[in-house]
Amino acid sequence: MMSIKRQAMRAFTLLEVLLTLAMSVVLMGLIGTAFQFYAVDMNVRNMDIRQTQLAAAVMQMIEDDLRATLHSEPADMSGLEELLSSSLGGEEEGGQRSSGGESEEDLSAAGISMAEEPIEEIETTNLDLTSGVAVLQTPGLIGNQYQIQLDLSRLPRLEEYVQMMDANTATLQDVPSDLKTVAYYVQSEDSTAGVMDSLAELDPDATDLMSGGLVRRSLDRAATVEAATMGNISTLNQTGDLLAPEVKSIEFSYWDGLMWQLEWSSDEFGELPLAVQVRIYMIDPALAATEDSNTLSSLGPDSMRAFSHIVRLPMAVAIETEEEEDLSEAGL
Length: 332
Known about the structure:
The chain is of the alpha+beta class. It has eleven helices and ten strands.
């Protein structure tokens, strides 16, 4: 009887069992919460690194295009006119022959025309790459706060000379050329006629091939001018590459030497901007890891993560104002 009582005293009571089970449940909950917090934190850090790498790659691509922007300056033919006039007539008695109207008459008599050929006028509208295109009279740069289009000079790659048959007739076919027209803009998510996502086309289960994101369009300048003048705007808007669906917005500003401008046209200013500031916005990784896709589409700019970069254009020349011209003429 004594051994039975001792064994009964060594057993756990019902209260002790319930307390042990409750403590086990609390401990398992704390461990699960710690694992979940660690997984979310690692996911946020992973998305942060991916966004940084993506932003660096996009900025490098835009910088390479901006640094190759071409702007042609009119040739100064005064020296050639003086040389030809002196070789044709030389100096007259009683004074030196001027290079004005008489030299032009001598050049025209010799069958040499120094007059510039008239450039075909192309209607230049406000830049709206989602519904139209703006074509510059001469190669250069045109852009506003949210879109930019530039003409760049770059030797074509060897693979561009290989003729490739593309079954997609909804896009314009590019040709190898050393003068390209490149445009950057962000396509809205609810766009019905725009650039399709090439990765979504590879998914057989994908139902929606349109998505928003940063679009880059690179075409031969002659093909771009022809599409703009012939009214083939819809096909032109469907041509391009969807670079980064993660980019929700992009902004540009243009430095003229004194202040940042929100719009620029090399036809109006006569020169390229000295520098271009590029700023792209992506969703904050902390919010992307916790919110669903429907909530992310309605987030404001305060919840975005911004990346900024300033690119200097090598072929840009400072614009001289009227005051600077007056001071230079006065010798100050």
